[in-house]
Write a structure and sequence with these properties.
heterodimer; A: 132 residues; alpha+beta; mini-chromosome maintenance (MCM) complex, domain 2; four-stranded antiparallel beta sheet; three-stranded antiparallel beta sheet; 2 helices; B: 171 residues; mainly alpha; Arp2/3 complex 21 kDa subunit ARPC3; 7 helices; 74% helix
């Protein structure tokens, strides 16, 4: 018979939790460093290949991207972008909502489309902890 | 690996349960509350934790592979296979290592497994998309895995408490 596992949390479990939390915080600090909506460019890629680049300085309007069986309608506004509609099964890209800071991205896994915001002056004030 | 009839039956039963649980968790779309690709409860991880302790790493691996392949086949989505395989294999690998540390309880093992599962899925997304953008979601996924890992740990602990006195755990 195999030894039965411990069924009550121990201090060592807290260490595992701390390690995971520390990794999450470190990655968040590393990636979500500020960024304002000044001088942003939305870079759209499919399967890692760039297919479009839209300056968000004063952009307004919609564009449609197709990849495989999926079509995404992306709405661009000054300083922000969002996926308005998509026919993908998961709809994560639509639920992600508006992105408006450098470094933020919208990923549609089924369509393999990534919309990533580049540029944007670093914001000295705050760490961006807002997602979605 | 030589399986007794009892072990084989238990493996088959657990595979069926894991598949049912993966299907069941679609009814609780956690991703509506946290709109990040890959956020889910990970109920099938309860089966992996249970199999790891009740049967062993080899049997847990068999169940996990059967679950991933059959799950992708049923969903008719072979693209998702690389995600579920990389996620599940990293989770199992991490949990095998963590479970060797006798000081850790089933909770620590489960949380470590859930975190590793998300790392594996992000790795799959990095490979599939050829872009580092998915890394952006990892902090959220790791934070969520503390919660979901704790929950699956709790469920597995309850399971073991109930089954400790049965002969299911012997042999």
């Amino acid at each position: 018979m195999r030894p039965s596992p411990k069924l009550h949390p121990t201090a060592w479990d807290a260490l595992v939790v701390l390690c995971v939390a520390a990794l999450a915080i470190a990655l968040a600090l590393f990636q979500w460093r500020g960024g304002t909506s000044q001088g942003l460019t939305a870079v759209v890629s499919v399967d890692g290949t760039e297919i479009d680049r839209v300056s968000l300085e004063d952009a307004a309007g919609e564009k449609t991207y197709q990849a495989g069986a999926y079509t995404l309608t992306v709405e661009y506004a000054a300083g922000s972008a969002r996926v308005r509609t998509s026919n993908c099964p998961t709809q994560d890209c639509v639920h992600t909502g508006v992105v408006s800071r450098g470094g933020q991205s919208i990923v549609c896994l089924p369509a393999r489309i990534v919309i990533r915001l580049e540029g944007g002056a670093p914001d000295p004030d705050a760490v961006d902890a807002v997602l979605g | 690996m030589k399986l007794t009839t009892k072990q084989l039956t238990l493996c088959a039963l657990l595979t069926a349960m894991a598949l049912a649980l993966s299907y069941l968790e679609n009814l609780f779309p956690l991703s509506l509350a946290i709109p990040v690709p890959g956020v889910k409860l990970g109920l099938a991880n309860i089966v992996t934790v249970f199999a790891l302790y009740a049967l062993g790493p080899g049997e847990a691996l068999l169940i996990l592979l059967a679950r991933c392949f059959l799950g992708a086949l049923f969903a008719g989505n072979m693209n998702a296979l690389v995600f579920s395989l990389l996620g599940a294999l990293s989770a199992l690998g991490t949990m095998v290592l963590l479970s060797r540390r006798r000081a850790l309880s089933i909770y620590g093992v489960s949380v470590g497994g859930a975190a590793a599962h998300n790392c594996g899925q992000i790795a799959a997304a990095l490979l599939t998309l050829g872009s580092t953008a998915p890394l952006y979601y990892l902090p959220v996924l790791l934070a969520v895995s503390l919660l979901t890992g704790g929950l699956t740990g709790l469920a597995s602990a309850c399971l073991f408490r109930r089954l400790r006195h049965t002969d299911l755990m012997k042999g």
